[in-house]
From TrEMBL:
The keyword Transferase applies. It is an enzyme of class 2 (transferase). Coiled coil: none annotated. It catalyses: L-histidyl-[protein] + S-adenosyl-L-methionine = N(tele)-methyl-L-histidyl-[protein] + S-adenosyl-L-homocysteine + H(+). Residues 10-20, 553-562 have a biased composition (Polar residues). Pfam families: Rubis-subs-bind (PF09273), SET (PF00856). Residues 1-20, 549-593 are annotated as: Disordered. It comes from Bubo bubo (Eurasian eagle-owl). Its EC number is 2.1.1.85. The keyword Nucleotide-binding does not apply. This is protein-histidine N-methyltransferase.
Length: 593
């Protein structure tokens, strides 16, 4: 996570362009909060709203210029103090050093040979910044009263970070001083850099991230100014948008889940030193040792002295990396794009299809994923498409026919087609669907490649163009793969080839045997839960912002920066779960045969 740029900013408390009256600032903040609390605009209006919100944010930033807290010197000036502090407090600091890896930024470099699976790094709990340490800090009083902080660990960590940064005697200062002063997430993009993402799938999340961050800032600005429990916070006299953007970006790019001390639940944490490691493909090799109460990381592979030590962040798409981590990862084997599908309620076979899907644990409308690797679809999406394309007779066989239950459990297994006709239909449909998605882009793959080669672009612009290029390449691969499958099954049908038969022993094979990740198709739609939580907090903020600037609703969750935390003791995520997590707040397309 060292691959972040560090841009010079003004010294703390100096360089303010003008004296801004509290009333003037509150008026701007109120206008921003009102704008950010408005309903989501209709199709084609998101860019207009983004520009309007950005204009208000820039007005606020201009009036706050020079008021942000920053540290003197360069980031790497503080690395020796970080190592000293970590060593004194029980972390491992031998066998590696912090180094600059040019394009990737700062990371960990091996100073000796490190073998694969060797425990080379551990960080005890006392060094971590957690929601629990936040509750025991100066933030505790406000935390006990504010429902947003109680519900959203990432927001709590952001304020914990801001409060500790403002405290010259903070225990965590050696860590905080080594954090980047700016990040490369879209929150830091210029308007023209964001424009390169127009017509991409990622742009909607970029708009949402910017709007939510601005709304959070405006909301908490009022809380800090009006809530009695915020009176002792070191942010009372200076809480700028740039400060908040920095804090949420620091948390967004670094947060991880760890167990609480008693191991009964998980909590969010920032993990000093470990978060200097950059990402590569592989498996998660970090866990939490409850017995020794420390975060532990074993080597992903053999590392020679002088080589960079990488870890695996998780099975994230490049859109997730760009939006939440601020980098684009070339050759990302887990890259994917969204495809929204649903059975139309006007389909005369809707009830039967819905029942078969329900028995398989699949919703009638969902957001699935097309993957960069072969095959482009998961077992869950294969099962959905098979049901979507079933004839009435095929549906009856899966509902009341002989071995109906067994057939439900093999819906996602590519080795056991429903019929050759069904396979031809589903691959024909997928080919057409992916082709339609490709046509929504304003540029082609060739256009983007040429643009990257012939223009002098900022790092953010390059990242944006690579992201939109990557989306189209995945869709093109999906079209080709679907066409090849369609042709294969058409030939099987024409040749009168017998359908593969399965026996009872095959029923356990719930995986798509072509993919490298084979998983059960019965799963929970995780995104439904997240969307419901988002709605709760939207309602809470919209209903309560006029009353002293704080929320009194229960069980609310902030529709804020999307948590990209990975459970540290979790093994490689499966494709089915990725599909479930790919859902968005947009309406799901309903499609007919």
């Amino acid at each position: 996570m060292g691959k972040k740029s560090r841009v010079k900013t003004q010294k703390s408390g100096t360089g303010a362009t003008a004296t801004v009256s509290p009333k003037e600032m509150l008026n701007l903040i109120s206008e921003l909060l009102q704008k950010c609390s408005s309903p989501t605009p209709g199709p084609g209006k998101e860019w207009e709203e983004y520009v309007q919100i950005r204009s208000l944010v820039e007005k606020i930033r201009k009036k706050q210029k020079g008021l942000s807290v920053v540290f003197d010197g360069k980031r790497d000036d503080y690395f020796p103090e970080l190592i000293k502090w970590a060593t004194e407090n029980g972390a491992s600091t031998e066998g590696f050093e912090i180094a600059n890896f040019e394009e990737e930024g700062f990371g960990l470099k091996a100073t000796r040979e490190i073998k694969a699976e060797e425990l080379f790094l551990w960080v005890p709990r006392k060094l971590l910044m957690t929601v629990e340490s936040a509750k025991n800090s100066v933030l505790g009083s406000l935390y006990s009263q504010d429902r947003i902080l109680q519900a959203m660990g990432n927001i709590t960590l952001a304020f914990h970070l801001l409060c500790e940064r403002a405290n010259p005697n903070s225990f965590w200062l050696p860590y905080i001083q080594t954090l980047p002063s700016e990040y490369d997430t879209p929150l830091y993009f210029e308007e023209d850099e964001v424009q390169y993402l127009q017509s991409t799938q990622a742009i909607h999340d970029v708009f949402s991230q910017y709007k939510n961050t601005a709304r959070q800032y405006a909301y908490f600005y009022k809380v800090i100014q009006t809530h009695p429990n915020a009176s002792k916070l070191p942010l009372k006299d200076s809480f700028t948008y740039d400060d908040y953007r920095w804090a949420v970006s620091s948390v967004m790019t670094r947060q991880n889940q760890i167990p609480t001390e008693d191991g009964s639940r998980v909590t969010l944490a920032l993990i000093p030193l470990w978060d200097m490691c950059n990402h590569t493909n592989g498996l998660i090799t970090t866990g939490y040792n409850l017995e020794d109460d420390r975060c532990e990381c074993v080597a992903l592979q053999d590392f020679k002295a002088g080589e960079q030590i990488y870890i695996f962040y998780g099975t994230r798409s490049n859109a997730e990396f760009v939006i939440h981590s601020g980098f684009f990862f070339d050759n990302n084997s887990h890259d994917r794009v969204k495809i929204k599908l649903g059975v139309s309620k006007s389909d005369r076979l809707y009830a039967m299809k819905a029942e078969v899907l329900a028995r398989a644990g699949i919703p009638t409308s969902s957001v699935f994923a097309l993957h960069a690797t072969e095959p482009p679809i998961s077992a869950q999406l294969l099962a959905f498409l098979r049901v979507f394309c079933m004839s009435e007779e095929e549906l009856k066989e899966h509902l009341i026919g002989e071995h109906a239950i067994d057939k439900i459990f093999t819906l996602g297994n590519s080795e056991f087609p429903i019929s050759w006709d069904n396979e031809v239909k589903l691959w024909t449909f997928l080919e057409a669907r992916a082709s339609l998605l490709l046509k929504t882009y304003k540029t082609t793959v060739e256009d983007d490649k040429s643009f990257l080669e012939t223009h002098d672009l900022t790092s953010h612009a390059i990242m944006a163009i690579k992201l939109r290029l990557g989306e189209k390449e995945i869709l093109e691969k999906a079209v080709k793969s679907a066409a090849a499958s369609r042709e294969y099954y058409t030939k099987q049908m024409a040749d009168g080839a017998p359908l593969p038969k399965y026996e009872e022993s095959n029923i356990a094979l719930l995986e798509n045997t072509v993919a490298d990740s084979r998983l059960p198709i019965v799963l929970r739609n995780l995104e439904d839960v997240e969307e419901q939580e988002d709605l709760k907090i939207d309602e809470a903020i919209d209903g309560e912002v006029t009353e002293n600037g704080f929320v009194n609703g229960e069980n609310s969750l902030f529709n804020g920066t999307k948590s990209e935390s990975e459970n540290l003791n979790k093994e490689k995520s499966n494709r089915e779960t990725e599909d479930a997590k790919e859902s968005s707040s947009e309406s799901t397309d309903e499609v007919k045969e």
